[in-house]
Amino acid sequence: MFQFNYKLKVAERVKAGCNRHPRYNPEREGRGGIKSGCSTCFSLSLIYIRRGYLWTLLTGSF
Ligand SMILES: [Zn+2]
Fold first, then answer.
1. What ranges in the chain are assigned the alpha helix state H?
2. Cα of 18 to ligand 1 centre, how many Å?
3. Cα–ligand 1 centroid distance for 19 (angstroms)
4. pLDDT tens, residue order, the chain (62 aa)
5. Please, what is the Cα angle at 55 between 50 and 60, to 5 degrees?
6. Which pLDDT does position 27 carry in this prediction?
7. How far apart are CA 28 and CA 36, in angstroms?
8. 45 C-alpha to ligand 1 centroid (Å)
């Protein structure tokens, strides 16, 4: 139940993306793809990194 809720929430936030850089994809471009230090893109990359980290904790597949 918790896993499902968390996954859904993060998917929605990442899908929302950045208004100024709608094509920015944290999964593919990472922090190197952030244009001119955009804070929204930076937040997206953090969410993506934390999602992977939390998923690792939840599933126990280190
Ligand atoms: Zn941006």
1. 2-16, 26-29, 39-59
2. 5
3. 7
4. 556 666 656 555 556 688 899 889 888 898 899 999 999 999 888 888 887 777 787 787 65
5. 130
6. 83
7. 18
8. 10
